């Protein structure tokens, strides 16, 4: 085979051709790959360094194998195995103790067969420079002189059809693939003699024997022909210059077209390998070829950014950037998608999108097509030469078409063979399985033989630093000793040797804490400093140059990164006193201090400013930013930046190598673990009181992922964090563009606490406004371990209280003028139509204290299982907690006792039911009628409100029912009809409607109108408004509903009730409505309506009224931010809905947001601040953004739009707002989620103490929501107790329903045949599943229900079984469930059960307890069985449920809220005096409202107009 290498003749620009002959390399090669090495004018001189590296790490095995590989060995095993298509290659391994050549490590040992005797190294048999085995055949190995230094091996014969791997990367090598090398110059070779010389030198090396050249067939010198003036790459101009990256963009296009053209050969793909792409292992080309073959088909095969410098602002980055494949990747020139995208780049070459690097722009195109996210460009880029905005073409439809065509093929794929570190500083520990690294800067790690380092810890209490000490030995750190600085007033008697092997010294400080840098007595040559609110990071990756110079990160003192923040600017101005040209900020905890230089620096510092820094701000010239009122805005003591400026002045700056953290990132040596403690420590009662209502504990950086030090902590954080194994670091989940950040980020360049603690030590000092109140760095430089400024954003501590914040009304104004000022239809007057809820979050319009998350280290991807120790105590007649709410919970009907009824199962699944549920009679969107926006605008009424909130007053006007009854009473021939009608009307007026009035009145508070409520018009729906109401209005009412009976014909078509909104107030809160009912729809026996029928209609109408009050998605567009009074707004989106799944342009409320599931399926969820935290607390998953909605449906009021109505049953089975929420069990239950959503409308204040917490999915963890219900045919931990996977015989019951009220069987069907995406029993049983699509075909225990409260109607199956009112179901090791008396103890907040009179206590979920009667009991989730003992009402959305505690409880945002569910009922004075609200507040509230444990009776304020 002839190898042709093309040169460029510099004299005439013509190509010269050289030939050489190579040996036969086996079978004909089926694939052809091009390696494209682009270069430009500035790096032509260093082009040769690429190939020097290739000689160090050879591309393929052919470069190092024995030259005699063509001949067979004497044993018949050598050479090419023609029958297998595999080449026998002898490889030499270094087995010496300190050898540096290739070594056999790890899994490689099972991949090689080696000679029994080692190969000699003396004489002629030793290997060549290229790693070969010399000139002799492999047959000579047996006669070699044995040596313990090397070993000669070859690969084992592979199993037929099995792939070959190198370090976990497929590596078929160049046996079946021919590879050519392209040297691509950006301009033309005639323009540059340097380029020609470099190419000629490379070709000469290629032609020389051995080395990397043996891995390539041809070398071609080609050119891109970019004009000099357009061959640009100017990163610093990326926000202003359209062509700043034109050079690389055009060079990619040239590479694609050259390889695709066929002029040089027919290639399938090319690997664009820039100079920064450096091989780090041998056989990297073999590995890449193997990956190409393994990942077919693909358009682009490459690597995402795998460094860690983005972690501090990961959430705020565009998803297209996070997921883009770096340009140093493999491009399939035959893929039609890549042809289209490359063509699009060529079209955009003269427009604003040319300002985006080609690889990033490719990702933007794909993201726009798949997710509909249109990228944003820098404002100056969008201006033409005349300064006018450039209008971009709308490519969304075209890109979406491409995505629909190819997204199923996964055109973008990623390989481990290439890793993109893009200007990331690393040490050898950070390298992984990659063969080629792009953009990494490799430094040396700390060497303990060359440097001893002390750790200085500033502490203010006797034990705060104990956490750091206890965890010290578990960390990879360089510290040989520790010095703890504590105040003189604190005693400390800890024996630290019990906790750590590192020597610990206590030093009492005699100066202020901010002088610890200078005051610490350090005996080693070097030291670092932190404080007791931190721990040492898992890996303290100190970096050093090859000359062992410490590498220290800095932040440039530019305006965006520093100078616009007063605190940072003050640091720079102070440091410039030492050296006027100081322009870098170094964080105190990043600096590795030299003790000798520290001593000299501190001596001079104290001479200048006093031993306690008292003269720091008194020394002239006065600083421009010295004071703000009475507050010091700068540091009070010496800083690392001062220290560095001093060294620079002394010409000792060479002691450190400084790297720009804004470009290369930085790894923190210390991680903050006590954030809230830092905020609270040292604050007096007066200071706490001043900050009351300010979201004092909203320290949102507490939720940062990078505080987690282990993989288990990271993945189990509940924040959706991702673990980065190469760096042993944790980073946040990426967000959809403009998504709500998990937490905000700031940075402190200080070691002092966030809040001054001088007061706690008996000292009085001015309050310091440090970096925690001034955002220190922009997001891309911020690190997340320091306290955020948003939490304490008012320096005086006088933050706004959470009070009603709606624009004030002037009685003197005309009604129309006032209404016009409250025009929610004209969104532009309040908020940009394009603005989303997520943008509102970023603007701070939705800033709420519960957006942060608690510190947690327990796993929340699955259930949080935390064993605890519990003391025995006597049974004191504690009763089962009836606050639980389920679809089949008879005890959930607020204290009522129904001893004669059979409890329901899941209504449609159950055989024995309290109320038969008919899906055709359930609640759907057509039953709650909301006027279209234009019509709604006309129906507003001006209402003057008072200044206090009280219970919501609902008036049902049933005068039409009384009129009907009177007419029937006058017809003596219709006596039977009269009696039936009377029973039904009495059921409505005496029981059902008063119960609903009482329920919602107890749940919601509003500002009462100062005057009577006047209907807007003379009719409402089909109801005529009484003349008296039109003239005088309705007294003592906030909501008026007129009840009307439907005509017989309408009822024959649909007997379900309908509720119409007729009138709104000026804030668009529904005020007046019409309820149309069919009386015949209510079953009557013996002229009485039985209890189950009353329960069903109560539940149905209660749910409908909830939709009327605000739980209808059609009303979300009118919701306002309670904190600002601004509308949440709406936006235009394209949604597919209806039977035809037609795409419709829909105005969608910003309360409804779109997400993408793990399998790439889009979903919608309702998301508002309080609701979001309720959902997070319910599932024990602090990364959830809202409550998942069922699929979109056609809007019955507007055929051109789609809308939503119900929550998704798969996630919210027993919630309100579902298709089965009208079941009888919901008659007197409203969930915290519903109340949170209503409160976020700004129309109501919710009484969460009266809410009923659902059970389904409670405390299950993130996996319950983000993953499959069944995985591989098995029930994962997060699904345990909620879903099942057992096929059961008819009548058999192997477990409990999810509420533990019933024994139940799994509804798994072996012939369900679910859709492919819902096949959970793969690979063996794809047809298994539930038959119910509304729960995504997830099987549940809902068959053959036996209620544990059967009261003697069930037969005991196990010894000790008891069917009582307080009995609950427990699963056992006998596979037979058992009903046992159960006690929820509010004193100890524990769960216990009784077997044969003996009490057993559950310590944690999943505990197995032997009850000594032949079986053991499995403890259920206490959060399900005793919901009011575990974070009642899901903390009202005003705190975080800490599932890491023994018994989870609420950590309220308001530090003075002592109520168990963060209800806000405890005053500041009570809290300071140690008083708290009764633990059973929620239950006692219900008992007060319904003292007889039966149906609620009418109270004087329950108005039913007859």
UniProtKB/TrEMBL annotation:
Keywords: Hydrolase, Metal-binding, Metalloprotease, Protease, Zinc. One of its GO terms (molecular function) is metal ion binding. Its cofactor is Zn(2+). Belongs to the peptidase M8 family. Residues 1474-1491 have a biased composition (Polar residues). InterPro entries: Peptidase_M8 (IPR001577). This is Uncharacterized protein. Pfam families: Peptidase_M8 (PF01457). It comes from Cyclostephanos tholiformis. Residues 107-116 have a biased composition (Acidic residues). Residues 104-153, 1474-1506 are annotated as: Disordered. GO terms for biological process: proteolysis.
């Amino acid at each position: 085979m002839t190898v042709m290498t093309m040169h460029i003749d510099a004299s005439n620009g013509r190509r010269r051709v050289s030939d050489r002959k190579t040996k036969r390399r086996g079978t004909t090669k089926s694939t052809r790959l091009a390696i494209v090495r682009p270069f430009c004018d500035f790096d032509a001189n260093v082009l040769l360094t690429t190939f020097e590296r290739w000689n160090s790490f050879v591309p393929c095995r052919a470069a190092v194998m024995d030259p005699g590989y063509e001949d067979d060995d004497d044993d018949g095993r050598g050479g090419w195995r023609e029958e297998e298509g595999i080449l026998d290659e002898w490889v030499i391994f270094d087995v010496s103790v300190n050898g540096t050549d290739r070594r056999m490590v790890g899994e490689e040992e099972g991949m090689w067969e080696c000679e029994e005797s080692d190969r000699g190294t003396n004489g002629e048999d030793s290997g060549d420079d290229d790693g070969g085995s010399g000139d002799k055949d492999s047959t000579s190995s047996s006669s070699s002189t044995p040596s313990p230094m090397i070993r000669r091996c070859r690969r084992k014969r592979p199993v037929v059809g099995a792939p070959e791997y190198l370090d976990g990367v497929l590596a078929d090598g160049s046996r079946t693939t021919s590879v050519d090398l392209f040297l691509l110059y950006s301009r033309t070779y005639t323009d540059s003699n340097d380029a020609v010389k470099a190419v000629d030198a490379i070709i000469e090396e290629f032609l020389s024997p051995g080395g990397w050249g043996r891995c390539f067939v041809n070398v071609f010198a080609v050119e891109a022909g970019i004009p000099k003036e357009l061959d640009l790459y100017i990163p610093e101009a990326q926000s202003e210059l359209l062509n700043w990256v034109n050079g690389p963009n055009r060079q990619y296009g040239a590479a694609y077209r050259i390889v695709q053209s066929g002029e040089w050969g027919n290639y399938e793909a090319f690997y664009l390998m820039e100079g920064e792409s450096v091989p780090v292992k041998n056989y990297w080309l073999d590995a890449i070829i193997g990956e190409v073959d393994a990942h077919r088909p693909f358009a682009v095969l490459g690597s995402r950014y795998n460094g860690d410098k983005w972690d501090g602002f990961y959430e705020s980055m565009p998803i297209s950037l996070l997921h883009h494949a770096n340009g140093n990747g493999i491009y399939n020139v035959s893929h039609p998608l890549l042809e289209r995208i490359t063509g699009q780049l060529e079209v955009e070459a003269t427009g604003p999108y040319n300002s985006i690097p080609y690889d990033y722009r490719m990702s933007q195109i794909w993201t726009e097509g798949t997710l509909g996210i249109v990228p944003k460009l820098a404002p100056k880029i969008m201006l033409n030469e005349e300064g006018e905005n450039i209008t971009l073409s709308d490519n969304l439809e075209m890109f979406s078409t491409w995505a629909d065509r190819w997204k199923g093929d996964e055109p973008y794929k990623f390989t481990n063979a290439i890793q993109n570190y893009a200007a990331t500083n690393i040490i050898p520990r950070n390298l992984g399985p990659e063969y080629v690294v792009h953009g990494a800067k490799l430094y040396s790690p700390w060497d303990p033989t060359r440097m001893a380092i002390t750790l200085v810890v500033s502490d203010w209490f006797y034990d705060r630093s104990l956490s750091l000490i206890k965890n010290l030995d578990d960390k990879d750190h360089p510290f040989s000793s520790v010095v703890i600085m504590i105040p003189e007033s604190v005693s400390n008697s800890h024996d630290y040797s019990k906790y750590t092997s590192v020597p610990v010294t206590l030093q009492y400080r005699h100066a202020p804490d901010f002088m610890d840098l200078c005051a610490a007595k350090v005996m080693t040559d070097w030291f670092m400093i932190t404080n007791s609110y931190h721990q040492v990071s898992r890996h303290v990756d100190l970096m050093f140059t090859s000359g062992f110079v410490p590498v220290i990160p800095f932040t440039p003192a530019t305006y965006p990164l520093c100078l616009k923040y007063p605190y940072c600017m003050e640091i720079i101005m102070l440091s410039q006193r030492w050296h006027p040209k100081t322009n870098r900020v170094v964080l105190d905890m990043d600096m590795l201090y030299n003790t000798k230089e520290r001593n000299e620096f501190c001596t001079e510092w104290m001479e200048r400013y006093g031993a306690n820094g008292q003269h720091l701000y008194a020394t002239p010239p006065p600083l421009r930013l010295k004071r703000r009122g009475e507050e010091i805005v700068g540091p009070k003591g010496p800083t690392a930046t001062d220290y560095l400026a001093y060294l620079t002045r002394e010409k000792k700056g060479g002691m450190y190598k400084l790297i720009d953290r804004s470009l290369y990132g930085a790894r923190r040596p210390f991680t903050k673990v006590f954030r809230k403690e830092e905020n609270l420590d040292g604050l007096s009662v007066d200071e706490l009181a001043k900050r009351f209502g300010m979201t004092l504990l909203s320290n949102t950086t507490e939720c940062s992922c990078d505080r987690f030090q282990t993989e288990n902590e990271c993945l189990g954080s509940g924040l959706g964090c991702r673990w980065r194994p190469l760096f042993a670091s944790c980073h946040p989940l990426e967000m959809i563009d403009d998504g709500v950040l998990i937490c905000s980020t700031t940075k402190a360049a200080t070691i002092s606490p966030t809040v001054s603690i001088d007061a706690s030590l008996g000292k009085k000092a001015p309050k310091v406004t440090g970096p925690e109140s001034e955002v220190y760095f922009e997001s891309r430089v911020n690190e997340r371990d320091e306290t955020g400024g948003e939490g304490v954003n008012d320096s005086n501590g006088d933050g706004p209280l959470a009070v009603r914040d709606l624009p004030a009304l002037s009685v003197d104004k005309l009604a129309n003028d006032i209404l016009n000022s409250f025009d929610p239809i004209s969104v532009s007057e309040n908020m940009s139509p394009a603005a989303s809820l997520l943008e509102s979050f970023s603007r701070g319009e939705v800033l709420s204290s519960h957006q942060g998350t608690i510190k947690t280290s327990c796993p929340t991807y699955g259930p949080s299982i935390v064993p605890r120790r519990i003391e025995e105590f006597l049974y004191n007649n504690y009763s089962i907690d009836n606050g639980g709410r389920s679809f089949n919970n008879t005890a959930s009907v607020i204290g009522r006792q129904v001893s004669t009824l059979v409890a329901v199962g899941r209504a449609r699944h159950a055989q024995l039911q309290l109320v038969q549920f008919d899906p055709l009679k359930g609640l759907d969107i057509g039953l709650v009628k909301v006027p279209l926006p234009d019509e709604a605008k006309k129906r507003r009424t001006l209402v003057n409100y008072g200044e206090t909130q009280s219970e919501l007053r609902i008036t049902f006007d049933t005068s039409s029912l009384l009129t009907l009854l009177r007419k029937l009473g006058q017809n003596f021939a219709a006596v039977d009809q009269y009696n039936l009608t009377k029973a039904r009307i009495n059921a409505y007026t005496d029981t059902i409607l008063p119960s609903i009035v009482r329920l919602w009145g107890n749940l919601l508070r509003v500002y009462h109108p100062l005057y009577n409520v006047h209907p807007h018009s003379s009719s409402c729906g089909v109801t005529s408004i009484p003349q008296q109401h039109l003239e005088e209005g309705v007294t003592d009412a906030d909501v008026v509903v007129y009840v009307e009976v439907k005509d017989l014909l309408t009822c024959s078509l649909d007997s379900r009730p309908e509720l119409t909104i007729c009138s709104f107030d000026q804030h668009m809160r529904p005020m007046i409505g019409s309820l149309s009912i069919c009386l015949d729809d209510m079953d009557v026996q013996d002229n009485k309506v039985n209890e189950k029928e009353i329960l069903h209609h109560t539940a149905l109408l209660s749910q409908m009224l909830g939709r009327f009050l605000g739980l209808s998605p059609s009303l979300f567009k009118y919701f306002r931010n309670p904190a600002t009074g601004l509308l949440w707004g709406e936006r235009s989106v394209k949604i597919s809905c209806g039977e035809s799944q037609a795409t419709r342009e829909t105005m969608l409320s910003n309360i409804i947001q779109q997400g993408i599931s793990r399998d790439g399926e889009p979903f919608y969820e309702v998301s508002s601040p309080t609701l979001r935290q309720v959902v997070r607390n319910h599932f024990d998953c602090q990364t959830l953004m809202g409550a998942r909605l069922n699929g979109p449906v056609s809007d019955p009021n507007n055929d051109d739009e789609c809308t939503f109505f119900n929550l998704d049953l798969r996630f919210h089975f027993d919630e309100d707002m579902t298709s089965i929420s009208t079941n009888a069990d919901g008659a007197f239950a409203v969930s915290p989620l519903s109340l949170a959503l209503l409160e976020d409308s700004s129309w109501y204040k919710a009484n969460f103490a009266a809410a009923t917490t659902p059970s389904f999915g409670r405390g299950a963890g993130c996996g319950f929501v983000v993953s499959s219900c069944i995985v591989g045919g098995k029930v994962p931990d997060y699904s345990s107790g909620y879903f099942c996977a057992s096929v059961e015989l008819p009548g058999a019951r192997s477990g409990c329903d999810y509420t533990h009220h019933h024994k139940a069987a799994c509804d798994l069907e072996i012939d369900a045949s679910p859709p492919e995406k819902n096949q959970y029993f793969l690979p063996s049983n794809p047809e298994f599943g539930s038959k119910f699509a509304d729960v995504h075909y997830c099987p549940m225990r809902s068959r053959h229900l036996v209620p544990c409260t059967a009261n003697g109607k069930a037969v005991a199956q196990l010894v000790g079984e008891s069917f009582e009112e307080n009995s609950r179901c427990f699963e056992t090791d006998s596979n037979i469930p058992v009903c046992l008396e159960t006690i929820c103890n509010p004193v100890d907040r524990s769960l216990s059960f009784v077997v044969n009179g003996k009490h057993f206590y559950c310590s944690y979920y999943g505990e197995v307890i032997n009850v000594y009667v032949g079986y053991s009991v499995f403890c259920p989730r206490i959060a399900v069985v005793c919901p009011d003992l575990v974070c009642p009402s899901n903390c009202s959305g005003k705190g975080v449920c800490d599932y890491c505690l023994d018994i989870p409880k609420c950590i309220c945002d308001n530090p003075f809220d002592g109520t168990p569910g963060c209800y806000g009922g405890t005053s500041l004075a009570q809290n300071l005096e140690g008083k708290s609200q009764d633990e059973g507040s929620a239950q006692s509230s219900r008992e007060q409202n319904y003292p007889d444990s039966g149906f609620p009776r009418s109270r004087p304020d329950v108005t039913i107009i007859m």
